[in-house]
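Batch manifest, entry 17 of 40.
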Amino acid sequence: MNPATEIKDRPAHRRPPNRFVAFYRTTVGKKVVMAVSGLVLLVFVVGHLAGNLQIFLGAEALNDYAALLRRTPELLWPARIGLLAALVLHLVASVQLVIANRRARPAPYAVKRDIETNYAARTMAISGPFVLLYVIYHLAMFTFLTTGPGYSQTDVYRNVVQAFQSPTISAVYIAAMLLLGLHLYHGTWSLLHTLGVSSPHYRWLRRGLAPVVAAAITAGYISIPLAVLAGVVE
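Output type: structure tokens
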């Protein structure tokens, strides 16, 4: 055999894929990435709520909290970059899972039974994009573009109160938080299931914890514009 032909016919050496990449290519890998990134975002949502609720302690408390964040960019910016990375991973994994599911089942079921699912699960593809759009709008109003009415660089309390005194802004915010609650309801159940709380013996924990987490977070965020509109926070 001609040596040149032997070399040509020999399969090219391929470098084995990175373990993370190989794992991510699987459906389970995508679900784990989606769950972990969702957990990171959930922790942020809770932390952000805890900071925002300081509005009930008065202007000084909320403004001191905001000033502390501005004075620690070495912590603030890594947190922002980490959150952005988690958001991108969450979005990419969710889109890829939806596409994979549709390819696996191009024709709809003749009879479809929703087991371990609910209205929140069926609307994840709707609530997610709407919440993302509101986050962009919210950041534009209070963080980056500062488009809020009478915006002040130092008086965050005043910014929030003036914004939520507008019934339109408050209504949009409340609607977005209700969608966030739906998203968190199924998201909390799903991440618990993916990260190991999947045994039928723990179904009560998933079913019990998910609505409590979603309801508590939603109520906390909605309480702020309602308190402003009611004159409790002035």
